[in-house]
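Regression test case RT-17, inverse folding.

Input:
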């Protein structure tokens, strides 16, 4: 049997808009989980006064999440549609857990944005829309959920659809990349099958909509970039870095360079899942044996490329960021840790040139003294030690980053421009 193409999907949206319930229902009806399990969860949920939470519990397997009724971590679950096999990244809608949302959405090919038909657009709906755009999710399915709360009213659905589309356009989504559909996760309407209550809707069910998504093209034509996750020395083989190919392709015999280490070598062999392969393409997790490099020459966070298009080492770079949460304010001189691909490097904010409206991206203030939670801005950053990073327009896979400090994700951003190290 031919393996179906793989897609990653993120579930995003405001807390309590029914993401987990919708996902639980989808997985059960698509056959990814046993209905007996749902029955068992239903009994337990009723026993602790959380009736209707049985579907949500499918993803919220942590006890703490069950008692609080919110999703904490990013859970992964595989399931199949007719066309693809999907890995679902269930992204928390809760404020404290935005960091998982960043790590979750950054690997999504498509996202399902869940909006409560009655409550409509909430603060986090806006934040998640802006974030998914900043993090590079291009295709969206908008599931207008809890249609049962508005008696399956078509007028309410059309109204909300207009409002959501207006919001999406402000951050640059195009109508042709967005698909709207009404659902009721709790009553199972239009999730995998069509009921009588949404007779007026002639579009796809959620399951059918997932087959309408397009697999992003593998960025084979871009320059080779493989961020190093680990480096091993294998007896009788030599130095073997491991990592995931983000862009380009790697072949046996290629001359490669690791930056910022500035070490070159030749590819002797490439292995994936313990089997030797002649070439590796984006998405492949590989180990590759390099002649001419010792284990101590390179480390996690270095990036491998071809010698004719080496990975860019930044002296400083300009980026657009969104401040998600910060207890006070961010000013020039602030030095948090930047997480980009597999690198973690403390970097200093040297300039805050523009404050932007986070919903539209319009400039609100030039050279502000500080930025705080909820603000978007254009800033200049100087890494405290050499860091490989790329312009998001040239190599998007290496142009995005998260900023962490005090045990939490403070901001997320993308690289607009780079002043390379001489």
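Golden output:
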């Amino acid at each position: 049997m031919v393996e179906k193409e793989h897609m990653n999907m993120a579930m995003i949206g405001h807390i309590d808009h029914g993401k987990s319930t919708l996902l639980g229902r989808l997985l059960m009806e698509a056959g990814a989980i046993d209905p007996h399990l749902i029955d068992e969860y239903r009994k337990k949920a009723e026993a602790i006064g959380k009736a209707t939470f049985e579907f949500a519990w499918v993803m919220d397997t942590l006890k703490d999440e069950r008692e609080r009724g919110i999703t904490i971590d990013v859970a992964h679950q595989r399931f199949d549609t007719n066309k693809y096999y999907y890995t679902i990244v269930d992204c928390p809608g809760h404020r404290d857990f935005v960091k998982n949302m960043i790590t979750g959405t950054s690997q999504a090919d498509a996202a399902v944005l869940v909006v409560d038909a009655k409550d409509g657009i909430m603060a986090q709906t806006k934040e998640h829309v802006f974030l998914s755009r900043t993090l590079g999710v291009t295709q969206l399915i908008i599931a207008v959920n809890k249609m049962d709360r508005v008696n399956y009213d078509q007028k309410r659905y059309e109204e909300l659809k207009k409002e959501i589309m207006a919001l999406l356009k402000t951050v640059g989504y195009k109508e042709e990349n967005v698909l709207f559909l009404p659902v009721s996760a709790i009553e199972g309407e239009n999730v995998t099958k069509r009921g009588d209550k949404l007779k007026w809707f002639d579009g796809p069910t959620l399951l059918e909509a997932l087959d309408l998504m397009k697999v992003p093209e593998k960025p084979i034509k871009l320059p080779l970039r493989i961020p190093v996750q680990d480096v091993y020395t294998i007896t009788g083989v030599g130095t073997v870095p491991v990592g995931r190919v983000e862009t380009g392709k790697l072949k046996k015999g290629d001359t490669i360079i690791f930056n910022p280490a500035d070490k070159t070598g030749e590819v002797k062999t490439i292995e994936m899942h313990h089997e030797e392969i002649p070439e590796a393409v984006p998405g492949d997790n590989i180990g590759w044996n390099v002649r001419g490099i010792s284990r101590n020459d390179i480390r996690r966070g270095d990036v491998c490329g071809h010698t004719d298009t080496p990975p860019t080492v930044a002296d400083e770079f300009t980026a657009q960021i969104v401040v998600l949460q910060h207890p006070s304010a961010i000013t020039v001189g602030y030095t948090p840790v930047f997480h980009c691909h597999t690198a973690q490097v403390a970097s200093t904010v040297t300039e805050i040139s523009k404050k932007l409206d986070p919903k539209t991206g319009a400039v609100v203030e030039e050279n502000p003294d500080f930025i705080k939670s909820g603000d978007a801005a254009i800033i200049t950053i100087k890494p405290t030690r050499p860091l490989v990073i790329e312009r998001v327009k040239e190599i998007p896979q290496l142009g995005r980053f998260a900023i962490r400090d005090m045990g939490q994700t403070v901001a997320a951003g993308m690289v607009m421009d780079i002043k390379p190290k001489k």
